[in-house]
């Protein structure tokens, strides 16, 4: 036995040196990178840490923070951090990144056969979902940026969901501050130094930076100064108080405004439901008025706050913080900070709601419009430059219900056919993943806006809870679909999307009441839906969630643009409910079709299912019952009302007034309001003038231009509306006026002559009848034409809900009254002339072609018809006939 053992030992002793050598060789001999250090660049999962190359085959990651990835997440090697390079890459180390790392310092070993030259980029990557968590570039090239904006020297935890990180730049006397908070994108984060020397910490006099994200998802950081516990207000005398940007205090003084704005945004992003904004500020600012000097070595009081952000509106061009209603400790607080002391935070911030993406819920009968657009906030980087948009939202999380067919109108281009797949990455996944299941779509579900392709998909009981919509050719253009059981679609018979695809309106008619629900398709504090064609003079229903998380629904009547014009009404609403679905407001109510009361304004709020209901909407950050303030201002509204046909279950957008129709209206006004009356008046009142046949020329010229303008106007309307329809009153009356107008030149041509060819005087009877006919048709034409103008305006109001129809109608009425007054005056003058008899009549008589025997005289005093002055006039006319 012993010899055997000995032999074994000997063998082992002999074998060990070559084994060790083999191990060293596997480790990689290229050690040119040893000692290289770089910060990890964060992309997702709150990855932070500093990578250091230890030797040819291992590396240490110091202070590694990471939210758990899936079991396939690894350290990965690739040519670059982009989508293609990572897809071509391979694992670099064996250890899975499948757990949460809490500021740990760990050593990882490269896989056998992998050496540093094969790892230009070391990434934390999950190949299953193609998710990049973060990366470092490994190269001794000093130009490579080894500082990531998410990495700082120190960190302090201010509240469970808020941290401040900072790096002191002693040489430049400035400090870089990073604010990190697990809050929604609609929140601001404020941090700054309290006024020094105060006996107890106070917000008054504090110099803070307010950071957050605009509605477009862009970060901002602004220098603020606090003079009062209130939102920033500019008083009537121009004084500014509240929590205001430094620049507002110096309004109107451009040099000063430039100098007090000392906070510089460096970087910002939102990932995993965490907002992060980095900015830089001087320790001791040149602005002594609104900035607190920071003593780098002293303990100083800092203040912080988290709250809702009010988007800019017509009154204020800034994103302003709203009051933070919640108690101290979660919404604001004080702390003591010495920026020279180094502190640390443990682990990554873990937000409850990590899905930050826009959400869209598919409804029965409402197609989802799929387009392609640039990627700005794709939820799962790395991402291609072009991604899919649904209803104008970038790669939203789509929610569908089992049993409710989903219709896509695919217009993302010929290179992006839509398909619904089980694979998270998509893009011809079958070529690499044989288990991919395709639920709908394929190469033929492609289209462009001019020719969209329709794709209908019915999720059924066997559809998994999460599937993906993707492009068939390119990976990662789409995102997740959440498949759920039951929802608003099941409870309401009808639904339509309101203007801009931002609000879905649901209703069910039951007997003499109507059940209504509305859902905002974006995060907001309240959702208002109004019945009417504009905000003013509409009946509105507002659903909102208060500071305690309780939902409310109330009814209002709005008669003004500002808060004072919004009056709460006591409509009989029943079954009211309001809740927030991931920040988007949903409210429901039931109301009688016609209120059973009288007298009050809400009693006129009748819903008639047989006529289209005009619906508008608005959303904003904060609402409260009782007194409304500027903070209730909406931040986004519908651009135009949508006409909801309650019985048919459909909706149509209220059309914009087409410019060509405005031209039609204008031309008709010129013809019927100016030229035709002008022509008639010329015939009636110019005959007594001395200048021969002026009246006749004026009459024919005016009336023939009127005919031409009228004809053009008619053609414009027909061309714009693509055809002619007699349905509307305006079309009927307009046609009548046009026909009457057309009769005039015809009967003018057929006018019986007073003198025959041989100079014989013909019988007067025909001529008298003709004159009556001509005059009666002409004047009826003017009356009918004027009516047509009014019906046209009314039609415009009905069809387009245009706001200035009232003004136009008033203008037209004034015009008609004016013309009538002028006619009365001229009539009066003419009568006086006739009564005065003498001079005028006589002078008229001896001018050739001039006569008082004009049409009106013929009509009014037909006995005068037999007057002697007809012949000269006729002689004058004769040559014109041609
Ligand atoms: C991570 O993966 C390893 C190896 O596959 C496994 O042993 C471990 O249980 C996983 N940890 C978690 C938290 O899933
Ligand atoms: C070591 O790898 C680097 C790239 O990482 C390369 O530039 C260098 O030439 C290699 N050195 C040797 C000795 O192979
Ligand atoms: C504008 O600001 C400058 C610098 O703060 C100051 O000297 C000047 O008096 C201000 N002008 C006015 C009109 O307030
Ligand atoms: C402060 O200056 C930056 C540019 O340096 C500008 O983008 C920002 O809008 C300014 N802030 C205010 C409140 O004027
Ligand atoms: C700052 O506060 C810490 C503890 O709160 C204390 O130990 C330290 O002496 C203070 N430093 C100064 C400069 O006051
Ligand atoms: C900063 O604070 C330290 C300690 O509190 C103090 O000694 C020093 O004078 C202060 N510096 C300035 C410029 O105020
Ligand atoms: C999918 O990939 C395979 C091979 O990678 C290729 O032959 C096939 O044409 C691709 N299909 C589509 C629809 O691009
Ligand atoms: C392949 O597709 C299935 C779904 O059908 C998915 O669960 C799996 O993770 C995919 N595998 C890879 C390697 O992408
Ligand atoms: C929240 O609830 C408390 C107690 O129920 C109440 O006093 C307070 O007014 C409520 N706040 C709001 C904003 O409704
Ligand atoms: C609500 O109902 C009550 C009783 O049914 C009635 O007296 C009241 O006028 C109604 N109010 C409205 C606004 O319809």
UniProtKB/TrEMBL annotation:
<keyword id="KW-1133">Transmembrane helix</keyword>
<feature type="domain" description="DOMON">
    <location>
        <begin position="501"/>
        <end position="620"/>
    </location>
</feature>
<dbReference type="Pfam" id="PF03351">
    <property type="entry name" value="DOMON"/>
</dbReference>
<dbReference type="InterPro" id="IPR019545">
    <property type="entry name" value="DM13_domain"/>
</dbReference>
<feature type="domain" description="DM13">
    <location>
        <begin position="34"/>
        <end position="139"/>
    </location>
</feature>
<keyword id="KW-0249">Electron transport</keyword>
<dbReference type="InterPro" id="IPR006593">
    <property type="entry name" value="Cyt_b561/ferric_Rdtase_TM"/>
</dbReference>
<feature type="domain" description="DOMON">
    <location>
        <begin position="160"/>
        <end position="307"/>
    </location>
</feature>
<dbReference type="InterPro" id="IPR057443">
    <property type="entry name" value="At5g54830-like"/>
</dbReference>
<feature type="transmembrane region" description="Helical">
    <location>
        <begin position="731"/>
        <end position="750"/>
    </location>
</feature>
<feature type="domain" description="Cytochrome b561">
    <location>
        <begin position="628"/>
        <end position="833"/>
    </location>
</feature>
<protein>
    <recommendedName>
        <fullName>Cytochrome b561 domain-containing protein</fullName>
    </recommendedName>
</protein>
<feature type="transmembrane region" description="Helical">
    <location>
        <begin position="666"/>
        <end position="686"/>
    </location>
</feature>
<feature type="signal peptide">
    <location>
        <begin position="1"/>
        <end position="22"/>
    </location>
</feature>
<feature type="transmembrane region" description="Helical">
    <location>
        <begin position="805"/>
        <end position="826"/>
    </location>
</feature>
<dbReference type="Pfam" id="PF25489">
    <property type="entry name" value="At5g54830"/>
</dbReference>
<keyword id="KW-0813">Transport</keyword>
<keyword id="KW-0812">Transmembrane</keyword>
<dbReference type="Pfam" id="PF03188">
    <property type="entry name" value="Cytochrom_B561"/>
</dbReference>
<feature type="transmembrane region" description="Helical">
    <location>
        <begin position="698"/>
        <end position="719"/>
    </location>
</feature>
<dbReference type="InterPro" id="IPR005018">
    <property type="entry name" value="DOMON_domain"/>
</dbReference>
<feature type="transmembrane region" description="Helical">
    <location>
        <begin position="771"/>
        <end position="793"/>
    </location>
</feature>
<dbReference type="GO" id="GO:0016020">
    <property type="term" value="C:membrane"/>
</dbReference>
<dbReference type="InterPro" id="IPR045266">
    <property type="entry name" value="DOH_DOMON"/>
</dbReference>
<keyword id="KW-0472">Membrane</keyword>
<keyword id="KW-0732">Signal</keyword>
<dbReference type="InterPro" id="IPR045879">
    <property type="entry name" value="B561A"/>
</dbReference>
